[in-house]
What we know:
- By secondary structure, the protein is an alpha/beta fold.
- The protein has 2 domains: 4-15 and 91-223, Rossmann fold, CATH 3.40.50; 16-89, Putative phosphatase, domain 2 (DNA polymerase, domain 1, Orthogonal Bundle).
- It is built from 10 helices and 8 strands.
- The chain has a 6-stranded parallel β-sheet with strand order 5-4-1-6-7-8.
- The protein is globular.
- The two termini are 12 Å apart.
- The mean pLDDT is 96.
- This is (S)-2-haloacid dehalogenase.
- Belongs to the HAD-like hydrolase superfamily. S-2-haloalkanoic acid dehalogenase family.
- It is an enzyme of class 3 (hydrolase).
Amino acid sequence: MIKALLFDVFGTCVDWRSAIAREVAAVLPEVDALAFADAWRGEYDPAMARIREGGRGYVALDDLHRENLHRVAERFGVIAPDALSHAWERLDPWPDTVAGLSALKRQRIIAPCSNGSIALMTRLARHAGLPWDCVLGADIARDYKPKPEVYLASCAALRLPPEAVMMVAAHNGDLAAARALGLKTAFVPRLTEYGPDQRSDLGPEADWDVIAPDFLSLAQRLADGR
């Protein structure tokens, strides 16, 4: 029986692209804000990969975002203030997110299993109204998804075996990593996470335990035992 739900956050719960572009436009009006947002996000995985692969000790995502901000700003020929890196704490939820999470919270424990730090996830939850029971993820494991330690540390923090926990994500790779460790899986697509020309994660790439169009549908299916 599923006792807890863990959630990917960036892209699955919140629309990072629109919010980041909005903040970039306010601070750096001379650049293409959407292109800047995409480039900034493009540095996300390479920065974490250096840590996952052992080339660098654990560095919280807050700091990686700031480093990546300046790397991208240099590429665009502008100077970005450090404060812009806090834009990742002010992302907007998808329309179904808050109501869906609230419905799911009435059934089970809910928590993020994100690459964001506890500080970042806490401030983002306050901004976006995400009703987590607690905050788990990278800071607990001191590593980054999809490393097994991140999922397992989150389960261990709840004192639950992996088979009693479901990972919810809009990214097939995240779910594949969780399933390999024994977690249940739920796929909720976010078809415009990367904008209107998105090419990846447009549908399920495996027979995930639950496939739902949004969080409210996920809550209903879990309530119905489907």
